[in-house]
Design a protein that fits this description.
about 90 residues, mainly alpha
Length: about 90
């Protein structure tokens, strides 16, 4: 999703936003409303990027494990064999 799409999603899901200022709840309007939507969109973009990075790391870890197991298999060994050797 683009930042603009996220801003539009925020506005769609939150047509009214309120904030506590000096203990009093006020409705955000104009530039304050726009700034809140933009801040949310930026935070969500960072979250999406983080989640994508975590998925890449997870896939790389799985590939590294598969590669290690293939190398062991080529030697006629298993992970259990290595454990039995104390490795």
């Amino acid at each position: 999703m683009t930042k603009e799409q996220l801003i539009n999603l925020c506005k769609e899901q939150n047509p009214i936003m309120k904030q506590i200022v000096n203990g009093e709840e006020i409705q955000l309007v104009g530039q304050d409303y726009e700034a809140a939507c933009e801040a949310w969109a930026e935070m969500r973009m960072e979250q999406i990027a983080y989640e994508a990075n975590q998925e890449v790391l997870k896939q790389a870890e799985a590939q590294a494990k598969a590669n290690a197991e293939a190398k062991l298999a080529a030697l006629g060994l298993t992970a259990e064999d290595l454990k039995a050797f104390g490795l």
